[in-house]
Specification:
Blueprint (H helix, E strand, L loop, with lengths): L1 H20 L14 E5 L1 H18 L3 E5 L10 H6 L6 E5 H9 L9 E6 L1 E6 L10 H10 L3 E4 L2 H14 L2 H4 L3 E4 L4 H6 L5 E5 H4 L5 E6 L8 E7 L6 H11 L5 H6 L3 E2 L4
Parallel strand pairs: 1-2, 1-3, 6-7, 6-8
Antiparallel strand pairs: 3-10, 4-10, 4-11, 5-8, 5-9
Helix pairs in contact: 1-2
């Protein structure tokens, strides 16, 4: 019980510090307010889910969330959701996709804030032998030997299918046995045994039960993605949206973000 109270007190202190640093004012003084609607892509989801309850408690605002890929035309991707006019105050997704939304008039120019850097990694079904991906040559051998490979329909998967395999010189051998996963985590597919190897953002693999994380892509072929937040042009409460973004980018949020396999780009 003493340990639990200690952790609760520490968490409360972190939340209060985050809100003060974000310019939100004193905790507990805000009147009841409207819901904030957030659309977030998978790369930031684990960190966001851990941070959201603290913001709700301290701000007095409920946060409603829709999840989807940063790019692509799947029904639940963020671009598709916005195109349908689903409510959104804050969008969190890969920076290139955010920039595209700004250009399309879906996100307010100047509202963009970089939150984290995210790397790509591999996973196998829990208990399966972990293949060697410690060097570029080892990665090539592993991909050629794998009977099946699952990859995402978002930023990491786009890199895999359009650049990585070509650069490794193994596209003809590997792409036919690779499956692009829509509207589902790659790790979930691997956990069911439907793919021997899965590639996705590390932060999207780590929370999945039933898999073992193998490791990141070698540095020479790694693709780091910056995930960023912006205020939707259609937001009915842009000030509250900016408040949430400041909270997610605050120094107090950084330890929680780092635990999910991301590198926080904390405001200074």
């Amino acid at each position: 019980m003493t340990t639990s109270l200690h952790h609760l007190g520490r968490r409360t202190a972190l939340i209060a510090a985050a809100l003060v640093l974000a310019g939100c004012g004193a905790v507990g003084t805000r009147p009841a307010a409207s819901d904030i609607h957030v659309m977030t892509s998978g790369g930031f989801t684990a960190a966001y889910n851990d941070l959201r309850p603290g913001f709700e408690k301290a701000s007095g605002r409920a946060v409603k969330t829709a999840y989807g890929a940063s790019m692509g035309n799947a029904d639940d991707s963020i671009p598709s959701r916005l195109a349908r006019g689903e409510p959104a105050d804050v969008v969190i997704l890969a920076r290139p996709a955010l920039d595209a939304l700004v250009a399309q008039g879906q996100v307010m120019p100047g509202s963009e804030v970089d939150l984290v850097r995210s790397s790509i990694g591999f996973a196998v079904k829990k208990g399966a032998p972990k293949p060697d991906i410690g060097s570029v040559e080892a990665l090539k051998r592993t991909l050629i030997a794998a009977p099946s490979i699952a990859y995402s329909a978002s930023a990491s998967g786009t890199y895999y299918e359009t650049e990585l395999l070509k650069n490794l010189g193994i596209e003809a051998q590997v792409k036919p046995k690779s499956k692009r996963i829509l509207s589902e985590r790659v790790g979930t597919v691997v956990a069911r045994g439907e793919a021997a190897l899965g590639l996705q953002q590390v932060s999207e693999l780590l929370p999945i039960e039933g898999i073992d994380y193998v490791g990141p892509l070698p540095a020479e072929v790694q693709r780091v993605t910056v995930f960023s937040a912006g205020v939707a042009t259609a937001s009915k409460q842009p000030d509250a949206a900016r408040e949430l973004i400041r909270y997610l980018n605050s120094p107090a949020a950084a330890p929680t973000i780092a635990k999910t396999g991301l590198e926080p780009l904390t405001a200074r």
